């Protein structure tokens, strides 16, 4: 991740709703560098560099348990609502 003009880190914040998660494993299969499965899915890091695989995991989660937010703006990037 690269710093922006204000010195903050640019990136995406990942969140998994562990109540909603049904442990399908799609996220781990799609983006293994970003998600791990214990009983339910969990992000490996709170903030990650932008990645198409992260968006894909969030968009195709069967229960929309994964959310991706822009760190700088707080805008939800996925899943699209």
TrEMBL record:
List, in alphabetical order, the Gene Ontology terms for molecular function in this entry: electron transfer activity; iron ion binding; iron-sulfur cluster binding
Q: Which domain of life is it from?
A: Bacteria
Ribonucleoprotein as a keyword?
Answer: no
Q: rRNA processing as a keyword?
A: no
Pfam families the record matches: Fer4_13 (PF13370)
Listed A to Z, the keywords are: Electron transport, Iron, Iron-sulfur, Metal-binding, Transport
The entry's function note states: Ferredoxins are iron-sulfur proteins that transfer electrons in a wide variety of metabolic reactions.
Mind telling me what this protein is named? Ferredoxin
| Organism field | Micromonospora peucetia
């Amino acid at each position: 991740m690269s710093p922006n003009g204000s010195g903050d880190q640019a990136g995406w914040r990942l969140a998994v709703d562990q109540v909603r998660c049904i442990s399908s494993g799609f996220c781990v299969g799609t983006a293994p560098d970003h998600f791990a499965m214990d009983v339910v899915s969990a992000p490996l890091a709170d903030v990650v560099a932008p990645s198409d695989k992260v968006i894909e995991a969030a968009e195709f989660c069967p229960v929309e348990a994964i959310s991706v937010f822009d760190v700088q703006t707080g805008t939800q990037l996925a899943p699209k609502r």
